[in-house]
């Protein structure tokens, strides 16, 4: 069974700066329809305990190239992609756009792995909110009923103080001593639909 920042971040920052009412909406955005959540460590433990558990990484491929990849990843399909054709001079970055093929690509990968409706599916992004939660919801809407969002994502949270303040070095897959690498499994690496 098992194979051996952009616009969303800007939106989150704007909502948090706008005050408590919008901050509550941001927290709700982390919520999923099924209400199933795991930390990166819990996700890894679930995968060790259940060989039918599937890990899906929904980050942009360029992000993975520079931050690393969880070694036991079964499927890599980005929820959003950097639009490299449209640089936003005001934001000083490329906008993120939804991967229009997300649902079809994930469904095809899940079918290829013969994933059952009640098999655990674990969805992970960078920090556990703006991509893993909606990605998990899209997969749940396909009829899968055990879809978890990794609450601390691959990189985890930011340091609150010190010389490295703001660096993502708190929890998350990479900071929890879980197996990861800068090398990406060619059999798992996402490829755009042609």
Automatic annotation (TrEMBL):
Domain of life: Bacteria
Pfam families tied to this protein: Rhodanese
SMART domains, per the entry: RHOD
GO molecular function annotations of the record: transferase activity
Segments passing through the bilayer: none
PROSITE patterns (alphabetical): RHODANESE_3
InterPro entries, alphabetized: Rhodanese-like_dom, Rhodanese-like_dom_sf
Key words of the record: Signal, Transferase
Rhodanese domain mapped to chain residues: 49-166
Annotated coiled-coil segments of the chain: none
Signal peptide interval: 1-23
Name used for this protein in its record: Rhodanese-related sulfurtransferase
Organism from which the protein derives: Halomonas saccharevitans
């Amino acid at each position: 069974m098992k194979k051996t920042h952009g616009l969303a971040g800007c939106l989150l920052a704007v909502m948090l700066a706008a005050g408590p009412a919008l901050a509550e909406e941001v927290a709700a955005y982390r919520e999923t329809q099924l209400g199933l959540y795991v930390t990166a460590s819990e996700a890894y433990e679930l995968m060790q305990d259940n060989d039918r558990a599937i890990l899906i990484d929904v980050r942009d491929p360029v992000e993975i190239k520079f931050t690393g990849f969880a070694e036991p990843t079964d499927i890599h399909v980005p929820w959003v992609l950097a639009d490299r054709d449209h640089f936003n001079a005001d934001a000083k970055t490329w906008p993120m756009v939804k991967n229009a093929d997300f649902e079809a690509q994930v469904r095809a990968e899940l079918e290829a792995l013969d994933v059952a409706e009640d098999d655990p599916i674990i969805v992970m992004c960078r920090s556990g909110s703006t991509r893993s939660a909606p990605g998990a919801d899209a997969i749940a809407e396909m009829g899968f009923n055990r879809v978890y969002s990794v609450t601390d994502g691959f990189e985890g949270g930011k340091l609150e103080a010190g010389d490295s303040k703001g660096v993502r070095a708190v929890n998350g897959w990479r900071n929890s001593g879980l197996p990861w690498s800068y090398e990406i499994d060619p059999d798992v690496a996402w490829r755009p639909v042609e």
